[in-house]
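Record 1 of the preview.
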Amino acid sequence: MTETDPTPVRHTPEEIRAWLIERVAYYLKQPAEEISPDASLAENGIDSVYAFALCGDIEDALALPVEPTLLWDIDTITALTVHLVALAAE
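->
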């Protein structure tokens, strides 16, 4: 039996931001360079289905609980990064 470390992994703001850009690019099938972190997710092309999936990805990859409505309240990658960093610090 293997032992797992229950300590949460800490990610830097830069890592979180880059990861969010990559996930949005993946869903939109676009190069990450075409994703604007300061434009709203809707302007980038994220719809409600992808927003729901992105929230699941955030929970799985970053171990942070988020509601799907969060992405309509905090609707840019830059603002979402700040929010997730603060949430992780709690």
